[in-house]
Write a structure and sequence with these properties.
Elements (H helix, E strand, L loop, with lengths): L5 H13 L2 H9 L4 H12 L2 H10 L2 H12 L2 E3 L8 E2 L1 H14 L19 H11 L4
Length: 135
């Protein structure tokens, strides 16, 4: 763990062990107020070195556990007379979170362009149609 304080190292270890970031902040920093501990954990997770340390500390077994939990998500639990309904939205969120925990996703990249052109509106419309697959 690169350049972390003792408390930050404890926070990372607690998060890796049980995943509850608020409880981890309470334990690592001796915070009694749950609301303040929640704020503290959010601030800590805003630091790249903390996030990197957590990713390094998480085991592949935890990733597998999150996968398996997520694959069992149901909208309605099965009963004796009917089958349960899978909750695919929740399953997707679990899997997405599991991969993010281990840093398996590349960061999102966005490009915003502001273009100014001395072109008649009709030509711009044709160009936009081509770019949108309509022309």
């Amino acid at each position: 763990m690169e350049m972390l304080t003792k408390q930050e190292k404890r926070f990372v270890a607690e998060v890796a062990e049980h995943g509850n970031k608020t409880l981890a902040a309470q334990t690592a920093f001796g915070i009694k107020d749950t609301n303040y501990a929640s704020v503290k954990s959010v601030r800590l997770l805003g630091k790249d070195r903390i996030v990197n340390a957590i990713q390094d500390a998480l085991s592949d077994e935890l990733l597998l556990q999150v996968h398996l939990e997520g694959l069992q998500a149901m909208k309605e639990e099965p009963t004796a007379d009917k089958e349960g309904k899978p909750d695919y939205a929740v399953r997707h969120k679990y899997l997405d979170s599991a991969y993010k925990l281990k840093g398996s996703f590349a960061p999102d990249k966005h490009v915003n362009l502001n273009l100014t052109a001395d072109v008649p509106n009709e030509k711009l419309k044709k160009l936009a149609d081509k770019l949108n697959g309509r022309g």
